[in-house]
Amino acid sequence: DAKTTQPTSMDCAEGRAANLPCNHSTISGNEYVYWYRQIHSQGPQYIIHGLKNNETNEMASLIITEDRKSSTLILPHATLRDTAVYYCIVRALGAQKLVFGQGTRLTINP
Amino acid sequence: DTAVSQTPKYLVTQMGNDKSIKCEQNLGHDTMYWYKQDSKKFLKIMFSYNNKELIINETVPNRFSPKSPDKAHLNLHINSLELGDSAVYFCASSPRTGRRNSPLHFGNGTRLTVT
User: Distance between CA atoms of B103 and B93, rounded to whole angstroms?
Assistant: First the structure.
């Protein structure tokens, strides 16, 4: 699976949009981009995933660049409960496992 | 109605003991996993079972033995516990992978402390 690079930490004000970047410059054609988050003392929680089109669900939006070498997770109106470590993961179609990196520690400030 | 449940939530034990962690999922998934999160917060896969068959074993010491009595359960038994086994262990499940990649659903973890 391709490697991902994320900032170690980010801050965002409550109520604003949180934009979390991820670089995956070695991604290959059959690899999807996944986002998970881990709130303190809980298990990782699935957020969203995509291949090449932008995706949106009730939690977030995922914007993938045309060359697929980077993506951005957008939490449109961040709340204090969105404080967590956010993991960007590249996973090949049919791959059995998720490989987690260090993630981005997002802190939402009141 | 927890989807992936693990017991116990906390486990404190002494070196050399044998202990088990249980995991159950009620999602009807075919594949189950064990992940380990160490003190540096890295999440690493240990095992994966697909319909009771072992499909991934990430060079975990053989003191760790997963057991899958049926596809809804994947238990983790650890023999001769060592200090370095202290970590949070997460169970997860997903539908069978194939043409579609399906997300993994994680439990809330078992914090194991070996003294």
Answer: 9
B19-25 vs B73-78, strand pairing mode = antiparallel
Burial class (CB in 10 A: 0-12, 13-18, 19+), B54: exposed
| pLDDT tens sequence across A11-45 | 999 999 999 999 999 999 889 999 999 999 899 99
Q: For chain B, give the mean pLDDT.
A: 91
- CB contacts under 8 A, B 30-69 vs A, are 31, 33, 41-45, 48, 50, 55-56
Q: Do A96 and B48 touch (CB under 8 A)?
A: yes
Residue A52: other Cβ atoms inside 10 A:
14
How far, in Å, CA of B91 to CA of B35, rounded? 6
Are B23 and B73 spatial neighbours (Cβ–Cβ below 8 Å)? yes
Nearest-angstrom CA–CA distance, A110 and A99? 32
What tokens appear for B115 in the block? 């003294």
CA-CA distance, B53 to A6, in Å (whole number)?
A: 35
The span from the CA of B100 to the CA of B43, in Å, is 23
Alpha-carbon distance A67 to A41, whole Å?
A: 36
* Chain segment B43-72, per-residue pLDDT in tens: 999 999 888 788 888 878 999 999 999 989
